Amino acid sequence: MNPTAAIAILSGISLVSVGICFWLAQRLSKNLRSHQIQLRDMYDQASTYREFTSRTIEVLNHAGAGVAKRVAENLEVTEAILHLAPNLFEECHGLRFWLKAEHEFLSKLYKTCLPYLNHAQRNIWDTVIEKEKRDAIFEDL
Q: How far apart, in whole angstroms, are the C-alpha atoms of residue 25 and residue 112?
C-alpha cells in the first residue's frame, strides 16, 4: 500500500473519530445540563418542603398556644357542657359528634407531630390533659 493512501485512510479514520468524540461530548453536555436542571428543581422542591415543614411546626407549637392546648380546651368545653348544660347535647344533636371529631382530629395531629413539638406542648399533653380524660369523656355522651 502506498504511503499516501495509508495517510489518507488514517486521516479519514481520525476525522471520523474526532466527529464521534465531538458528537459524544455534545450529547454528554446536554445530559449534564438536563441533570443540572433536575437537581436544581429537586433542591428547590426540598427547600420549599423544609420551609413548609418549619412553618407548620411553628403553627403547631405556637398558634393559639399550640395543638396540645387546643386538645385540652376542647376537652374542657366538652366537660363544661356535660356539667353545666347536659341538655345541650340533646337539643343540639350534632354537638357531641362535632366535639368528638375535633378531639380525634387534634389528638391525631398531636400524635403525628409529636417528634417535632416543643417541650411546652408535650408538657400540656402530659400534665394538663389527664390520660383518663383524653378519650373517656366522649364515652359519656
A: 50
